[in-house]
Write a structure and sequence with these properties.
The protein has one domain (about 1-55). It has about 60 residues and is mainly alpha-helical. The protein has helices at about 1-20, 25, 55. The protein is elongated. It has 3 helices and no strands.
Length: about 60
């Protein structure tokens, strides 16, 4: 029983190391790869949804 648990843990650690290095991501089919996040060209924030960034829609702050 201890032998099975040890082998399982070694396999999990090995998969985690490959995942950190990103090797398994390059082997994945194109449909399963993660897309790079879209960033706003003005402010650099992540764009969520299809309406674009808030910096284009909000009026500038008066201060």
């Amino acid at each position: 029983m201890i032998k099975v648990v040890t082998i399982f843990l070694i396999v999990i650690v090995t998969l985690a190391m490959f995942g950190k290095l990103g090797w398994l991501g390059t082997l994945a089919p194109k449909g399963l790869r993660r897309a790079k996040p879209k960033l706003c060209k003005k402010c650099g924030r992540h764009i969520i949804g299809s309406k674009g960034c808030d910096c284009d829609r909000l009026p500038p702050k008066k201060g």
